[in-house]
TrEMBL record:
Residues 1-24 form the signal peptide. This is Vascular cell adhesion molecule 1. Coiled coil: none annotated. The gene is VCAM1. InterPro entries: ICAM_VCAM, ICAM_VCAM_N, Ig-like_dom, Ig-like_dom_sf, Ig-like_fold, Ig_C2-set, Ig_I-set, Ig_sub. It is a single-pass type I membrane protein.
Length: 540
């Protein structure tokens, strides 16, 4: 009996030891059971587990309100991210974990919110004049919860005014305003008005809980002694960064309005800042700049002006061909070039050619009335001053119909049967002409035989003899040339051409001889003799 009891006790002891080695299921919620978050910031709540292989997470508010955040579940933990934090996140959040569908645990965290993002803003108006009433305004931006806000207005260490918002029931961030009027004395000039704002929330850990701003009580004046400072100077190089700074004496600080004179005395308004910065100045930035300093409290203004002259190498602003860079032969064409720089540039507009010496047509403008195809090509504009030069090019494209159409026959127009003859037709034009070949039939009609510029006849036969016509064509016109093929011994060439040549040769001899005879006859008549021999002797 005792042995059995001993065995049972040993078994129980073993089981207890095994159970102690298995880690128990636990959970925790971070950062703590209570946390403070800044409205507009980011808050991450984390629910961690230990001792559970497959936990299941869920989040909710104890009032079953919307979470107002994003839940992300991982193997052993879950996060609730609120970004940005807003008023709807002011809750007690509950994380529930179920371990392996058996054991369930819950923990909660209280999220408390506040907003106290910046120092107070002090405004003193109207103009501070000794003996007259002045108003001090202190603004505390975006405060929450405002019923914990306390504001003090102090002059040096003396408290002028105190206000709290303990009864404020605002449910969102608000800008709170505290206003106080007083009568300053001459002794107050130079003293400081301080606004102290305190957000007193017990047991809430955040910093700062107190914010202050100060402003001196100064007599208002100005603006006066207004000047413009230019960096690197009032004659910067083109491409530099120009900074114009308006310096003036004024209390409160003057508002600055920049302007620039344009043509006909009109004014272009620029930025409202005491520094006018122009990166990479251009020549058209030259001109008179005006700085106007305005003190709205004293209702006084003062102006300063400076002339700015941008210097530098020329920049070609225009290189154009009118009416277009592509024209038809016979149109009127104008080529213009303009550039800007300081000092003014010398401009040469000329046509480029293969020759080393390129003649300038004119400065700035070239007029081509009834343009010819030879006028086409590249034109360049060159602008130069003491700081450098600039060059730009443009191409004039002249369209024209076929010209200078020629036929080349290889080996010759007089051939032998069985030979190979090649006829090549060339023509100039823009766009390049389309070339085709036709052959005259016995009935006088023409038959198209090829659309290539080169026509080759292999093993020439009698039926290949005749008149061949080459036609060059584009949309601006066409031009035709012809050649007659004949075979030696079978067909004689057209006798018209030889007859013309023979007649021309005879005429070249006869016409001068007849002229001489007429001249000699007239001389003989003048001398009273009609003897041709005598007349010739007299001439000699």
């Amino acid at each position: 009996m005792l042995k059995e009891m001993g065995r049972t006790s040993l078994a129980v002891l073993v089981i207890l030891c095994v159970l102690r080695t298995v880690k128990a299921f636990e959970m925790e919620i971070l950062p703590a059971e209570r946390t403070v978050a800044q409205i507009g910031g980011t808050l991450i709540l984390t629910c961690n587990t230990t001792g559970c292989a497959s936990p299941s997470f869920s989040w909710r508010t104890q009032m079953d309100s919307p979470l107002g955040g994003k839940v992300s579940n991982y193997r052993t933990h879950s996060t609730l991210t609120m970004n940005p934090v807003s008023i709807v996140n002011s809750h007690s959040y509950l994380c529930t974990v179920v371990c392996d569908d058996r054991e369930k645990k819950e923990k909660s965290i209280e999220v408390e919110l506040y907003s106290f993002p910046s120092d107070p803003v002090i405004e003193i108006s109207p103009s501070l004049v000794a003996g007259e009433q002045a108003t001090v305004i202190c603004k505390i931006p975006d405060v929450y919860p405002s019923h914990h806000l306390e504001v003090l207005l102090k002059k040096d260490e003396h408290v002028l005014h105190e206000k709290n918002f303990f009864e404020d029931d605002s449910t969102n961030t608000e800008t709170k305003i505290v206003t106080h009027t007083f009568h300053p004395t001459a002794k107050d000039i130079g003293k400081e008005i301080t606004c102290v704002a305190r957000l007193l929330i017990a047991d809430m850990d955040f910093e700062p809980k107190e914010r202050t701003s100060s402003q001196k009580l100064n007599a208002n004046f100005g603006p006066q002694n207004t000047v413009i400072a230019a960096s690197p100077g009032n004659s910067p190089m083109e491409g530099d960064t120009l900074n114009l700074t308006c310096v003036t004496q004024s209390n409160p600080p003057a508002k600055i309005v920049w302007s620039k004179y344009l043509a006909e005395e009109s004014i272009q308004h620029l930025i409202k800042n005491n520094v006018l910065s122009i990166p990479h100045v251009h020549f058209n930035d030259s001109g008179r700049y005006i700085c106007e300093a305005i003190n709205p409290i004293t209702n006084k203004t003062e102006k300063a002006a400076m002339d700015i002259i941008i210097q530098g190498a020329p920049v070609i602003t225009k290189l154009s061909i009118e009416p277009s860079t592509t024209v038809q032969e016979g149109e009127n064409v104008s080529i213009q070039c303009s550039a800007e720089s300081n000092p003014p540039p010398k401009i040469i507009l000329r046509r480029k050619s293969d020759n080393a010496d390129m003649r300038a047509y004119s400065a700035r403008n070239i007029l081509l009335p009834s343009v010819m195809f030879q006028n086409g090509g590249d034109y360049e504009c060159l602008a130069e001053n003491k700081f450098g030069k600039s060059k730009s090019e443009i191409t004039l494209n002249v369209k024209y119909g076929p010209k200078n159409t020629m036929i080349t026959v290889i080996p010759t127009a007089a051939l032998k049967e069985g030979e190979t003859v090649t006829m090549k037709c060339t023509s100039s034009g823009n766009p390049a002409p389309v070339i085709s070949w036709k052959k005259k039939k016995a009935n006088g009609e023409s038959e198209k035989i090829s659309k290539n510029a080169t026509l080759t006849i292999w093993n020439l036969q009698s039926q290949d003899l005749g008149l061949y016509e080459c036609e060059a064509y584009n949309q601006f016109g066409k031009e035709e040339k012809a050649v007659k093929l004949y075979v030696q011994g079978l067909e004689e060439p057209d006798q018209t051409i030889p007859l013309i040549i023979a007649f021309s040769s005879v005429a070249a001899v006869v016409v001068p001889a007849v002229a001489i005879l007429i001249y000699v006859s007239r001389q003989a008549k003048i001398n009273g003799s009609y003897s041709l021999v005598k007349a010739l002797r007299l001439k000699v």
